[in-house]
Design goal:
Blueprint lengths: L1 H5 L1 E4 L3 E6 L11 H4 L3 H4 L1 H7 L9 E2 L8 E7 L2 H13 L3 E10 L9 E10 L4 E5 L7 E12 L3 E8 L6 H8 L23 E9 L6 E5 L7 H15 L1
Parallel strand pairs: 4-10
Antiparallel strand pairs: 1-2, 2-4, 3-4, 5-9, 5-10, 6-7, 6-8, 8-9, 10-11
Length: 242
Amino acid sequence: MDDCTSRVLFCNGQYALINKNVGEICSQPKTEAEKAFYVPAVFKDVFLAQYPDLQPEHFQCVNRIDRPVTGVVIVALTADANAALSAMVKKHRNMDKEYWAIVEGVKEPTDDWVTVEQFLSYNQKVQKAFVESKAGNGALPATLEYRVLGHGTNYSFVSVKLITGRTHQIRCQLSSLHMHIKGDLKYGSKRSEKNGGIRLHAAKLSFTDPMNGQKVHVEAPLPYTDPLWDAFSAAYTGSCRG
């Protein structure tokens, strides 16, 4: 519970913003084994300790990030909050999302944000997204912006702004640009990460609270530090100064 408490970035009794770890899941668990990793269940005791009158059956993830990805997740704590926030997320309005990625290969830094517009479909059977030539037959418009911040000997450091919210969107679209996220075997990475995760982190989330009009902004600390993430942080800081 102590670790969970430190990973709550914001909570007002209507909803919470938490920093998800690798392995935790946002979708409703399908098996008994998955229940222990379901985000609302993981944080339930923390929420109830602060707001004992809440009803856990209303706890739901409003936005979803993949199991091997870390970072900010919105958890609705009431039915009203879930309805209002889910509508906001579905319309992709009044919300800004920034992700950090470490990708394989050396890419030259970009001075400006690069816009990528494609059509993506998602195959439920193989649980993988694909770039399509046009819309239709399940293919939907997918847009993101990315900026290469710098690189090391074998990896490059990329910041991504997600405009739409398709399943596996960042993983698929970066892969289509030959920027395979480190550890993401499903989308072309050469080797896995020891913790089972991938080097993709939902770092920042900003939105206008649909219930009271207030601006909300949180930044999720990286789940751990190592030479690669340290190099990313240095490149990110340098790009902000520039």
